[in-house]
Amino acid sequence: MGSAIDDYVELHSSAEPEYLYRLWRATNIHMLHGRMASGHLQGRLLKMLVTMLRPQRILEVGTFSGYSALCMAEGLQQGGMVYTFEKNDEQEDFTRPWIEQSPWSDRVRFIIGDAIAEAPRLGITFDMAFIDGDKRTYVEAYEMALTVVRAGGFILADNTLWDGHVADPAYDRDHQTQGICRFNDHVAHDPRTEQVLLPLRDGLTLIRKL
Q1: Would the pTM of this model clear 0.90, i.e. be above it?
Q2: Class of residue 193 by CB neighbours under 10 A (exposed 0-12, middle 13-18, buried 19+)
Q3: In percent, how much of the chain has pLDDT > 70?
Q4: What is the dihedral of CA 54, 55, 61, 66, to 10 degrees?
Q5: What's the CA gap between 58 and 127, in Å, rounded?
Q6: Which residues, other chains included, contact 26 with Cβ-Cβ below 8 Å and sequence gap of 6+?
Q7: Mean pLDDT throughout 42-60?
Q8: Does residue 41 contact residue 20 with C-beta atoms inside 8 Å?
Q9: Distance between CA atoms of 144 and 131, rounded to whole angstroms?
Q10: Reduced to 3 states, what is the DSSP secondary structure of residue 193?
Q11: C-alpha closest to that of 83 among 100, 63, 97, 102
Q12: How far apart, in whole angstroms, are the C-alpha atoms of residue 187 and residue 129?
C-alpha cells in the first residue's frame, strides 16, 4: 500500500495507546531493523483478534522489542497470559524494562530462550500462538506450535509475504525468503489446519488447528 492509503487506514482505526507509541518510536530509534516491530495497524489487529478469540494462554515465538506481546496482552481477559520467547539474549536489556514497566506487565511472561525447544517443556496447552521469530525456522516453529496449541486453537504467522520477496525470483537464494516460502507451502498443504494469508503490512497468515 502507498503511504497515503497507510495513513488513511491508520486514521480510521483505533489509536494505539500512548505507551505503545513510545515503545514503537524507541524501537525504531535504538534497535537495528526497528521496522520489524508490529506497529499501529497490526498491533490493533492483534489486540482485536485476542479480544474476539478470548484465549487464556498465548505463545509468542520471537519477542523483539515486546510490541506485539503487549498488544496481545492488552486484549486478554483477567487471568490470561502471554508467554513470549526471544532467543537473542542481546535484546533483553532493551525489551525487559519496556515489558515490566507496561500497564500489562502482569499478563506477560518474557523468556530468553529458543521457543522451539523450550516452549513444550512448560507443559502448557495454548489457545493461540504467534510466530514472528527466525524466518529460516518457521516450519519448525509451526510444527512445535501444533503440539502445544489445542484443537480449534489458532496460530498466527507474521511476515509471510516478506516484503514481496516470496514472489520475486531475485530472492530465490536468500535463506530467510526460502524459509518463508517453505513455511507458506507447508501450511497451504497441511490437512491438519485451515488458513488464510492476509496481505496486511508484510503478510499475516491466520491458521486454525482442526
Answers
A1: yes
A2: middle
A3: 97
A4: 50
A5: 6
A6: 65, 94, 98
A7: 97
A8: no
A9: 11
A10: strand
A11: 63
A12: 15
The answer to whether the beta carbons of residues 145 and 129 sit under 8 Å apart is: yes
The pLDDT of 21-28, averaged and rounded, is 94
In angstroms, rounded to a whole number, what is the distance separating the alpha carbons of residues 120 and 135? Answer: 20
Residues 6+ apart with CB under 8 A from 100: 110
Distance CA 142, CA 145 (A): 5
The CA distance from 128 to 55, in Å, is 6
DSSP state at residue 32:
T
Side chain identity, residue 20: L
Contact 157, 62 (CB under 8 A): no
Asked whether the beta carbons of 89 and 21 are under 8 A apart, the reply is: no
| Backbone φ, ψ for residue 138 (5° rounding) | -60, -40
Q: Which of 106, 85, 91 is nearest to 27 (CA)?
A: 91
CA-to-CA separations, 29 to 62, 94, 96, 159, in angstroms, rounded: 20, 12, 17, 21
* Averaged pLDDT of the chain: 94
Nearest Cα to Cα of residue 165 among 203, 121, 127, 192: 203
> Vertex 125, ends 120 and 131: CA angle to 5°?
65
71 with 40: CB under 8 angstroms? no
**φ, ψ of residue 197 in degrees (nearest 5):** -100, 115
Cell readout for 56 is 487464556
